[in-house]
Specification:
With about 425 residues, the chain is an alpha/beta fold. It has a domain of about 120 residues: 2-Layer Sandwich (Beta-Lactamase). The protein has eleven helices and 18 strands. The strands form four sheets. It has a nine-stranded mixed sheet. A five-stranded antiparallel sheet has the order 15-14-18-17-16, with helices on both faces. Strands 1-2 form a two-stranded antiparallel sheet. The longest helix is centred in the C-terminal third of the chain and has 21 residues. The protein is elongated, with a radius of gyration of 24 Å. This is Roadblock/LAMTOR2 domain-containing protein. It comes from Caldimonas aquatica.
Length: about 425
C-alpha cells in the first residue's frame, strides 16, 4: 500500500467491484499512478536534506486527469455528495495561489502540495495545492488550486478532474484575449455535459477589463442542473478575491446538490435556471433552461450587451433605460434588481464611481421592499409599493418597482449635492414606464 497526499492508493490492476470507485468510466488500460510519501515530519532526513512533510509526489503513467479521478474516488468518502470543496481555476496564474496562501496564513492550516510528475522523465505536469479553512459552527472548507505546468490537452484536463467533484468551481478570469476566454468557456461547457461532472455551482469571476465579455459565457447552452453565475470584481488583492468567492459560497452552500437536482428533474420539478450577471459581485439574471434553447444555440453568434432578455425584461430596452438614467446630473449608478432574490440583473456605474457597491445596495433594498410589502399585507392593502426613497449621508437612493414586472425594481444611487431629486424621480418614473 502506497501513501499519497490525500489518502492511500490500492494496487493498479485491481478490478472494479471490490470496494473501488472509479466513477462512471473505467480507467484506460494504459493508465497507472504511484504516490510516494517524501517525509513524515519537518526534519533533516538521512541524507542531511530538509524536507517538507506537506509536499508529496504523484508519479503518473498515462492520463494525469484519470490519475486524479482515481485518487479522489479512493480517498474521499464525500466524493459522491460533492460537498465542502471549492476549486479555484486561475488560467492567468494571478490570484489563486495567493488566495490559498492567505487562507493558510489566516487560519494556521498548512498548504498541502501534490506534484504530478511523469514517471519516465520526472517532469512536473502540475502542482495541486490544498488548504482547509475552519468555520465556526460548520465543517471546514477545502480549497483546491491547480497550477498546470505542462502544455497539451491532457495536462489542461487536470483542473477539470478536480472541478467535477467540487461543490463550487470558481474560474478567475484575468485580462486575456477573447479567444482564450472562449476556449476556457467551451472546455468547461463540454466538461459540464460529461458523465463525470457533479459540480452544481460554477462562478466565472471576471476582472473589470473582461466585464464586457460576460455575454459570451451566457451564449453557451449550459446544463439545466448547473447553477452558473458571472460576476465582475476589481481584483485588487487576494483577500478581495476571496471575499467575493466566500460571498458566493454563502449564497449556494444550502442549495441542492447535483444528484438532488437530478431527482427533482425526474419528478418534473424545475431545475436551476442559468444565472448570469454582466456587472457586479454576486449579481445574476435568469436565462432559459437548457430544454427551452434551440439545439444549435452553441453555434449561434455571441449576443452583444443588452440583446438577451433579463428576468423577463427586454435586454435592449433595459440597457437603453439605464444608460438614459446615467445621463442625469449626480447619478452615481443604477441597476435593475430581481426582488425575489436580490440579484442585480443589469447595472451601470458612473466613471467616477467604479467601486460603487450596487450589489450590496440591491440586496439591502430587497429586504426593505419585502418589509414594506409585508406591512401592506398586514394592513389589508393590495396596492403595489411604487417608490421608496432613502437619504443617507451624501447620497439619495431611489427604488421604484415596475408596474409590468412586480418582481423587478429599479434602483438609482445619486449624489445629494449634485442631484435635482424631483427631476431624478421623474426620469426614473419614465424609465419604469418605458420597460412596461
Amino acid at each position: 500500500m502506497l501513501t499519497s497526499l490525500f489518502g492511500d492508493l490500492g494496487p493498479f490492476n485491481e478490478p472494479p467491484g471490490r470496494g473501488r470507485r472509479w466513477g462512471a468510466d473505467t480507467p484506460p488500460a494504459d493508465f497507472a499512478a504511484t504516490a510516494i510519501l517524501e517525509s513524515s515530519a519537518t526534519e533533516v532526513n538521512d541524507r542531511g536534506q530538509m524536507v517538507d512533510k506537506h509536499t508529496r509526489d504523484l508519479f503518473v503513467v498515462g492520463s494525469p486527469a484519470q490519475a486524479i479521478r482515481q485518487h479522489l474516488a479512493e480517498t474521499r468518502a464525500d466524493l459522491q455528495t460533492a460537498s465542502r470543496q471549492i476549486t479555484l481555476f486561475d488560467p492567468g496564474r494571478m490570484w489563486a495561489a495567493g488566495v490559498v496562501k492567505a487562507l493558510s496564513d489566516a487560519s494556521g492550516q498548512p498548504v498541502e502540495r501534490l506534484h504530478l510528475r511523469r514517471q519516465n522523465t520526472l517532469a512536473t505536469i502540475a502542482l495541486i495545492e490544498r488548504t482547509a479553512l475552519p468555520r465556526r459552527l460548520e465543517e471546514p472548507l477545502k480549497i483546491y488550486h491547480t497550477d498546470v505546468r505542462e502544455a497539451g490537452s491532457e495536462a489542461q484536463a487536470i483542473p477539470i478532474a478536480l472541478m467535477e467533484s467540487s461543490h463550487l468551481t470558481v474560474v478567475i478570469v484575468a485580462p486575456m484575449s477573447v479567444a482564450a476566454l472562449d476556449d476556457i468557456a467551451t472546455r468547461l461547457h463540454a466538461a459540464a455535459l460529461g458523465q463525470l461532472w457533479r459540480c452544481p455551482h460554477l462562478l466565472f469571476m471576471l476582472s473589470t477589463p473582461m466585464a464586457a465579455h460576460a455575454s459570451r459565457i451566457r451564449a453557451l447552452p449550459w446544463p439545466g442542473r448547473l447553477h452558473v453565475a458571472v460576476s465582475t470584481e476589481p481584483m485588487t488583492s487576494a483577500s478581495n478575491v476571496w471575499n467575493a468567492i466566500l460571498h458566493t459560497w454563502n449564497e449556494v452552500k444550502a442549495l441542492p446538490s447535483w444528484d438532488e437536482m437530478a431527482l427533482a428533474a425526474a419528478d418534473g420539478e424545475r431545475t436551476y435556471p442559468i444565472r448570469v450577471a454582466d456587472l457586479g459581485g454576486p449579481s445574476a439574471a435568469a436565462v432559459a433552461p437548457e430544454e427551452h434553447r434551440a439545439s444549435d444555440a452553441a453555434a449561434a453568434p455571441a449576443p452583444q450587451k443588452g440583446d438577451a432578455p433579463l428576468g423577463g425584461l427586454d435586454g435592449g430596452r433595459l440597457y437603453r433605460a439605464l444608460n438614459q438614467l446615467m445621463q442625469l446630473e449626480g447619478m452615481l449608478g443604477c441597476c435593475a434588481v430581481d426582488a425575489t432574490t436580490g440579484l442585480v440583473l443589469q447595472a451601470e456605474r458612473a466613471a467616477d464611481a467604479p467601486d460603487l457597491p450596487l450589489e450590496l445596495a440591491a440586496a439591502t433594498h430587497t429586504e426593505v421592499l419585502r418589509a414594506h410589502r409585508r406591512q401592506a399585507g398586514s394592513l389589508g392593502t393590495t396596492d403595489r409599493v411604487e417608490e421608496i426613497i432613502v437619504t443617507q449621508g451624501p447620497r439619495h437612493q431611489v427604488l421604484r418597482t415596475l408596474s409590468a414586472q412586480p418582481q423587478v425594481f429599479l434602483l438609482a444611487v445619486l449624489d445629494k449635492q449634485r442631484t435635482n431629486l424631483a427631476l431624478a424621480r421623474f426620469k426614473i418614473m419614465e424609465a419604469e414606464k418605458s420597460l412596461g
